[in-house]
Amino acid sequence: MSTHVFYSSEACKLPIYQFKKELIQAVKDNTFLVVTGETGSGKTTQLPQYLYEAGLCKDGKIGVTQPRRVAAITVAQRVSQEMGMKLGEEVGYQVRFDDCTSKNTMIKYMTDGCMLREILADSVLTHYSVVVLDEAHERSLNTDILIGLLKKTMSKKTSHGRTVCLKVVVMSATLETEKLSAFLGHCPVFTIPGRTFPVTEKFLNLIGPKDTERSAYVKEVVKVALDVHTNERAGDILVFLTGQSEIQKACDLLFQKAEVIDYRYDVNDSSVEGLLILPLYGAMPTDQQKQIFQPPPEGIRKCVVATNIAATSLTINGIRYIVDSGFVKQLNHSPRAGMDILEVVPISKSEAQQRAGRAGRTSAGKCFRIYSKDYWEKCMPDYTVPEIQRTSLTAVILTLKCLGVHDVIRFPYLDRPEERLILTALKQLYQYDAIDRRGQVTSLGKLMVEFPLHPGLTRALLKAAALDCEDIMLPVAAMLSVENVFIRPGQPETQKEADQKHRQIASEAGSFNDFVMLLNVFEKCKASDSPSAWCRDHWIHWRAVKSAFSVESQLREILHRLEEQGAVEKEKWDGSRSELFRRCLCLGYFTNVARRSIGKSFSTMDGHGSTVHIHPSSALSGQESQLDWIIFHDVLATSRMFVRTVCPIRYEWVKDLLPKLHEVDVYELSSVAREEVTDEEVAKWESKEALKRQAAESFEDV
Ligand code: ADP
Ligand code: MG
């Protein structure tokens, strides 16, 4: 069976098109295949169409994974459009909390996290004929785990004497393909030769190795972009920054500055006008994203200000100039703080080269780096460290355990994480009661994997459900799962107004507490006659709240399904609702407890004693002196370690939970990580624990 696909002249011009036949054959001939080629050569959008046309999905779907949610959605839109089909029919996508597929879906773009969840439900992926793991060079945690899992599954499938029908294609930009092939049993590597044009690279020396004041780089970047616009000949600009707020700030500045230049120099020159400024970041509405790909109107220059998403996931045609800030926002596990911290860090040299390469796709280009050569040599690592070696593995290890992978240390990792990180994850799972002392998944742990949430938050939610008050925790869990709902405008006056409105919501919530504030936004907005107007009036992102509504009902569905199965045991409670709410939160966040120390600072209680401050965006900011114990949702490191989404608690509520943080010695868990634990080992452990618990109880005196 083969289906005819019509390829536009544009699609026929892509480098991949000449290799269509050979590629189809290579996929048919091999269980594993690595495909590599320059970004923009057509791998992501074209290969699935070729396989579809060749009838490769007669036994199941073609699943294509992406590390980034926006990429999955954007690419699915593009491919459905190329194939002249309605999105969600033959071509669809699925990302967390947003499933746009149907029975007819044959090409399914999805995040690697969603694919991992599908494996959890069906380990041999019966409904798929081809799985394409895209953007493998990004080395996202989930893609790395998928590569290991599929390698494991496929070897099992053959050993049972069954014919292997699932095909696995791993796609990567040029880096590291030999390593991937070797890992997958020396499978063939298919290279799509691509033509690139030279890119002149310039170091502008605006940032040097000693520049610790990093917030200034947004201004520098804007200045460079404007210089390019005034001085360089036609061609679009792509600016790399690190995140949404920074990108919005840069876009605001670009608008303003463009006006100032006009005014000051009285320029009638159209080169200063004629700049079409477009932001591009993960949480953007998809209809706005469409504009990014469209060619600018005649005589106008496009300037896209993007996160790293534009480095490999999405290719924008017509880019001739790159302005590189040299920074990226990254989630890193900090062993010193014992937490995952979102921080802005210098990119690697290979990443910088990838960014520069975006200027040379269709003609010669230029890359302007705001940093100096000295900075490049001293501050930028050669390669980016894979996510698996730098972030918390808690959720992934629980998934592996639920898949029956008990020996999580000897799992086939493409790059082995430090044992310490695996053990920390096991320790956390043990603290959340998701695994027992033998490393087996508990009934609570089995419930936890059902929710696409952080295990701690899931635990709080399940407790609330047990106490019949899920109505207050579901909205909070949903609000924490969507992008930031609070708008923080760039201009000082409007900022003041927004702050005031947000404070008002906080005070209406009764108690100053960021979690309750989220609940209040959710409920107020839901009850309003015109939710979008309410949001506009209160400086709240309506789109974010709207998706929280949808997330809430999806979480509710999962919860109801589990309740119907009798999986949630009910408990009784006589305290007040506000206290109950906070106590449920404590169960999920007791690993994130801090106590006030000197001045406005707090000290974490997880044994690391890190100094943290309340983020200015918190409703509790400025009231530190009235606080004693707090829990927090996450940590952001800028000039200081800031905790965000904070809730005041009482020591009694965490008193019984805190010892668990100190109960287990991480190194003793290494035996749990392996398969067998003897009774003696458990006994030895328990006797030691008694001692440790005594030690931990001294906390009460703190
Ligand atoms: P690769 O995966 O090899 O990096 P892609 O398949 O993503 O390449 O891109 C192939 C071409 O399709 C590029 O020229 C890119 O600009 C174009 N393209 C991809 N997505 C879109 C879109 N949403 N709108 C317009 N053009 C797109
Ligand atoms: Mg691609």
UniProtKB/TrEMBL annotation:
UniProt GO BP: mRNA processing
GO MF: 3'-5' RNA helicase activity; ATP binding; hydrolase activity; RNA binding
Transmembrane stretches, start-end: none
Domain Helicase ATP-binding: 24-193
Catalytic activity: ATP + H2O = ADP + phosphate + H(+)
EC number per UniProt: 3.6.4.13
Keyword Nucleotide-binding found: yes
Ranges where the Helicase C-terminal domain occurs: 221-404
Gene3D superfamilies for this protein: 1.20.120.1080, P-loop containing nucleotide triphosphate hydrolases (3.40.50.300)
SMART domains in the record: DEXDc (SM00487), HA2 (SM00847), HELICc (SM00490)
Enzyme class label: hydrolase
UniProt keyword annotation of Calcium present: no
Keywords: ATP-binding, Helicase, Hydrolase, mRNA processing, Nucleotide-binding
Family: Belongs to the DEAD box helicase family. DEAH subfamily.
PANTHER family hit by this protein: ATP-DEPENDENT RNA HELICASE, ATP-DEPENDENT RNA HELICASE DHX40-RELATED
Name this protein carries in UniProt: RNA helicase
Species assigned in the record: Alosa alosa (allis shad)
Lineage of origin: Eukaryota, Metazoa, Chordata, Craniata, Vertebrata
